[in-house]
Amino acid sequence: MGSVEIQIGRGKTARRAYGIDEIALAPGLRTLDPSLADTRWQIAGIEREIPIIASAMDGVVDVQMAVRLTELGALGVLNLEGIQTRYADPNPILDRIASVGNTEFVSLMQELYAEPIKPELIIQRIQEIKSQGGIAAVSATPAGATKYGSAVAAAGADLFFIQATVVSTAHLSPEAIAPLNLAQFCQEMPIPVILGNCVTYEVALNLMKAGAAAILVGIGPGAACTSRGVLGVGVPQATAVADCAAARDDYHRETGKYIPVIADGGLITGGDICKCIACGADGVMIGSPFARAKEAPGRGFHWGMATPSPVLPRGTRIRVGTTGTLEQILRGPAQLDDGTHNFLGALKTSMGTLGAKDIKEMQQVEVIIAPSLLTEGKVYQKAQQLGMGK
Would you state the torsion angle of the CA atoms of residues 379, 383, 387, 390, taken in this order, to the nearest 10 degrees? Predict the structure, then answer.
């Protein structure tokens, strides 16, 4: 792709990749009133006003959150291998998770998540969301998809996300384990299947060819994720999104099928969301900003999906606090000055400033490399821990 190769040492070259904090969006020739900015997008035929999905994490989405997110014009994904499907009443369990200190946390999580997943609870949770008018989007690992796919389909879920730290169509398994055939699974499921996570053009293209209804992009940037520290694996989000969006556009040209790309992980502020869309994303998936909602199940805490691993946790628990209602976080009015409230207002105002009248135009705005974007002229905010200095 004509990218500049940098020599790490003899026999090992590397490509420079960029994170969201290193880029900025440059205004073009025109501006428009934010009220004219159209933020609508579609995922597998479901249209939403706000291109934001709440992550399938136990501190972020439960039945009530999924219903409320739907009402507010967004979408939430329920983790089918978490607390909600292991315990008929998750509340005392969530209280325990919020009450322990940092040193006891990993062992408590390993104990709580050792409780078996109950297929009847999977069906019950999906039905609870549907009966209240919510969009029932659920998530499982590839192994979980094999086990519970039929239960999910039978319960009438709207969307099925298959998520792993890294997912690919070429997976080698030990002889005793049959790997999930993603293409076959997508074909046989009566509901749309979203696949993730990936960070490269080739894998994104392969997942689209396998029948993904959308793909999730991002490995390791999540607020509670430690994959980059534990495994050393990941690609900074701006580069990862742009590469996977290029695969989407090429696939669309070849087949006429448009497969949305969702940037997943590492997005905290309205500016982060705007920048991901400008890099080519159709929508974003966020966790920690929603974990801060009054309605969130995490009680002011947020933890990674791979945190309860019995052998190698690739996530941690962070205290995010509670900053407002879900409505304030998504639609305002903002109570905070740091970009973590009123995401819809931020996106519309950014689109207006950049002259982008819809998501497609927002994906075309000029992106510049700007390592000083968040620090330039912000000495007082930093010193006083206000706004961007928090």
Answer: 120
| Domain tally, the chain | 1
Which residues on adjacent β-strands are paired with residue 47? 42
- 305-331 pLDDT, tens digit each: 776 777 777 778 889 999 999 999 999
Residue 5 belongs to a domain: no
Judge whether 367 lies within some domain. yes
Beta-sheet strands, E only, within the chain: 5-9, 12-15, 23-26, 41-43, 46-48, 52-54, 75-79, 137-140, 159-163, 193-198, 214-217, 261-264, 283-286, 301-303, 317-319, 366-369
Q: What pLDDT shows up at residue 375? A: 80
Lookup: tokens for 271: 């500016």
Catalytic site residue 276?
no
- Element of type H or E holding 352: helix 343-354
Which range marks the domain in which residue 347 is found? 19-389
By mean pLDDT, which of 1-15, 39-53, 151-165, 258-272 is the weakest?
1-15
Determine which one of 225, 244, 276, 279 is catalytic. 225
Is residue 319 among the annotated active site residues? yes
In angstroms and rounded to an integer, the radius of gyration of the C-alpha atoms of the chain is: 20
Contacts for 37 with CB less than 8 Å, ≥ 6 apart: 347, 348, 349, 351, 352, 356, 357, 358
Residue 13 lies in a domain: no
**Which residues are within 8 A (CB) of 118 and not within 5 positions of it... i.e. 6 or more apart?**
85, 86, 88
Helix (H, G, I), strand (E, B) or coil at 89: coil
Tokens for 330? 């998504």
Residue type for position 295: E
Cα(15)–Cα(5) distance, integer angstroms: 5
Q: What is the CATH number of the domain that holds 143?
A: 3.20.20.70
Element (H, E) at 277: helix 270-278
Give the residue from 196, 213, 194 showing the smallest Cα distance to 251: 213
C-beta separation of 318 from 301 below 8 A: yes
